[in-house]
Amino acid sequence: MRIFDPHIHMTSRTTDDYQRMHAAGVRAVVEPAFWLGQPRTNVGSFLDYFDALLGWEPYRAAQYGIRHHCALALNPKEANDPRCAGVLAELPRYLLKDSVVAVGEVGYDSMTAEEERAFEAQLAMAQENDLPVLVHTPHRDKVTGTRRTLDVVRAAGTAPERVLVDHLNELTVGMVADSGCWMGFSIYPDTKMDPDRMVAVLKEHGTARMLVNSAADWGRSDPLKTREVADVMLAAGFGEDDVEQVLWRNPVAFYGQSGRLDLEAVPADPDYAGNTIKRG
Ligand SMILES: [Zn+2]
Question: Does residue 73 lie within any of the structural domains?
Fold first, then answer.
């Protein structure tokens, strides 16, 4: 079984996680730019982070047989901080880089006017750079937030097949299915979707345009949740081909719209336990 995790924050995870993910079948990931917990106080802090997503993480992932790509953006939460606004002027030159396969994550957190301006500006940048967009939906008041998200996407004139609306649940999946956008689900240990609920959604709505991710980050989360969903799908009567569609072909089709996905297998370093990555 091969797995593509379309949304995971490896910068917050250890090298042991890469090793466990590879053993579970993960061969490719997309890491969207997000909030680090500690607020950033200047634009340079974002640029060092973007450089790490373009350089250090793909290098680290490759040691463990995993292809790493990223999505770059000013995240919704920090769009509210005037100290971070200058990131939008720096972003266009970063969107030209080879391993950037989308703009993201963008969207709403608290649904402020500042968030909406950053969201609209970045939808425009995605169109200018011919990149798909990964859109985060708010954790509070998700139905209203998702509805407004779809309105903003429509008003921006972004083609729905170029948009992945993420962190969906049973209450928001229907409206996104109707919109023609791709549907993302984050499987967390105790909040949002769990594997059984996810499989129930797949039974009801089918496997087309559906993506499943671990969204693993610095919070309580688990980078092996993608594999768990695959196993629960098989146990529930889905075939190997359905699993391959949801956990590999759908993310490949979505991010492949960037023209920049490189999925040639990278052989895992046989010296896993050794110091293949020097700590300097
Ligand atoms: Zn995220």
Answer: yes
